[in-house]
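<context>
A single protein, sequence plus fold
<entry> Chain with its tokenised backbone below
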Amino acid sequence: MRTRFRLCRTGAGILEGRVAVVTGAARGLGEGVAYALAERGARVALLGLEGERLGRLAAELPGPAAHWTVDVTDPDALAAAAEAVRYTLGEPSVVVANAGVALGGRLAECDPEVWRRVVEVNLVGSALTARCFLPDLLRTHGYYLQVASLAALAPAPLLTAYCASKSGVEAFAHALRAEVAHQGVGVGIAYLSWADTEMIRAADQTVVFRVLRAHLPWPASATHDTAPFVRAMVRGIERRSTSVYAPPWLRGVLVARACLPSVVTHRSRRVLAAREDASLPPTGLLGPGGAAAGTAAPGQSHRDRYHRLGEESWPYDTA
């Protein structure tokens, strides 16, 4: 008999024995959420591109876990991974769409292929993830958590692809919720600010990110410890929340959302104008050793694809 993941209260045992899928699980928030779910008794399926790191994490988790190396923009590979998850761990009742990448820089200076790839990974990859695991969620009356960003609420310059993709996943999750609510499937959106991950620490060393941060008002410019973010996401999963905010002040951004584009434009105009025609090279997100997050074309290494973006690059991490 299939179990039904319909509990709306918190407490010990809610996730015990559940199968949870986490994409982009090798690092950052994905890694943290995977570990926290395992601590609560879930059987965790780790999906991502860094197979070796995923394997180590699966071995370290305090419970049953397995990993699959997969590009979330590849529908056939993702479908095969979904079938393998069912066979190995069981039918998923929790899916966390966490995989994501970004590109920083002026739109006019960004490589259009890389710009497009950010949208493909963040938006199309999330939709494909939901579609591949939706049959499981329908059968288990499960829960899908879409990782969005502060960028979905307050789009910022120099991050056009990232902002477009995160606004897109927000709208996608709202629409999906309306489609499946009557079938007992919960859909939540995690709105997250800057977490203190490898990505953000390395990004702080780049010109693009420093310019971006310069125009953001506090507390939007601050980084935060990842632990509260992970706790908020797992609590949202346990409660089947429609929205997760980390830090909590992001709730207030919703109230001012209509005014934010004008505020951001005003502040960024002064910062960017001060640079005049100074070079502001695009900055791509690369993985360990130069491996970009799910972006290399067949026969082409991620390092080869992205080395032209300049010496300043951010290591891959999840949204």
